[in-house]
Design the sequence.
């Protein structure tokens, strides 16, 4: 299959491209970094530019499109809601329309943050209630995609992994700071269900192969607090867990509101695929093994020095 991955320099996009390149012809769009890799064809450019979506679709001629590109920095979205609306809502709508017209199949990446987190254990049938500009624009993007392209898949995710900058995931945050001996906070009242990006990647491919459509939660069936996640990272990497201070998100000094309980049900997807989803514990083990294998350095070398 020919796969077009938008946002191929991001945390999910790059790991997804590398995971799928062995069995598929992969094209990846990249705006923030110049990439140099033989694994897939890089299509540089900004999807906000006039005609850019049509251009990358013409270049890639994809069978499948996985739309990872987003303005995912929650506080940046609060600071520039106009840009957040363009990137997280308007571009997905254009892409979904153009992909439907060309006959390819689309997976649009969304977020667990569309829920307010007041109760948790959310299913795909539960009504979202976004608390931030990021969450609101992502929810509007979901709805725009499914309206323009009912055959598309919307995948609500939460993930961690290794990135070009080394600063894109909570896993990296704990490893980097604890290795440096820095004290960090761990939120005891924010519960989430993160998947390793490299475990998420094959799930997205399986969803396309199964010709699924509609809304799915694609997170770990194992959920934990961000403080507990930090403790597990410290334990696996042999780092000092006492450097992690348990605290409340309410005292975190964050610009945008965070949803406290983002436990999501995954039984719909597990039933559709006929298999259980990978757990956070499995992902952390693989995350550590990647570190031992030098994978973070491999990721960073893909970025061309400017």
Sequence:
């Amino acid at each position: 299959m020919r796969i077009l991955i938008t946002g191929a320099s991001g945390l999910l996009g790059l790991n997804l491209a590398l995971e799928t390149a062995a069995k598929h012809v992969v094209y990846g769009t990249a705006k923030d970094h110049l990439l140099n890799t033989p694994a897939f064809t890089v299509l540089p450019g900004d999807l906000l530019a006039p005609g850019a979506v049509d251009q990358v679709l013409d270049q890639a001629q994809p069978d499948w499109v996985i739309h990872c590109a987003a303005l995912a920095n929650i506080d940046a979205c609060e600071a520039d809601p106009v840009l957040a609306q363009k990137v997280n809502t308007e571009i997905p709508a254009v892409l979904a329309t153009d992909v439907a017209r060309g006959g390819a199949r689309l997976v649009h990446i969304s977020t667990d943050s569309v829920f307010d987190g007041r109760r948790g254990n959310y299913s795909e049938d539960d009504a979202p209630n976004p608390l931030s500009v990021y969450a609101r624009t992502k929810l509007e993007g979901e709805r725009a995609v499914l309206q323009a392209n009912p055959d598309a898949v919307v995948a609500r995710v939460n993930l961690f992994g290794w990135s070009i900058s080394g600063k894109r995931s909570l896993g990296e945050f704990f490893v980097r700071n604890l290795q440096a001996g820095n004290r960090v906070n761990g939120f005891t009242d924010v519960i989430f269900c993160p998947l390793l990006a490299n475990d998420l990647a094959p799930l997205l491919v399986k969803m396309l192969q199964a010709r699924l459509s509609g809304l799915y939660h694609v997170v770990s069936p194992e959920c934990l607090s961000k403080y507990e996640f930090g403790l597990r990272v410290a334990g696996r990497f042999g780092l000092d867990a006492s450097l992690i201070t348990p605290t409340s998100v309410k005292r975190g000094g964050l610009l945008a509101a965070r949803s406290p309980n983002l436990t999501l049900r995954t039984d719909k997807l597990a039933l559709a695929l006929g298999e259980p989803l990978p757990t956070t514990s499995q992902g952390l083990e693989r995350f550590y093994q990647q570190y031992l294998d030098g994978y973070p350095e491999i990721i960073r070398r893909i970025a061309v020095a400017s």
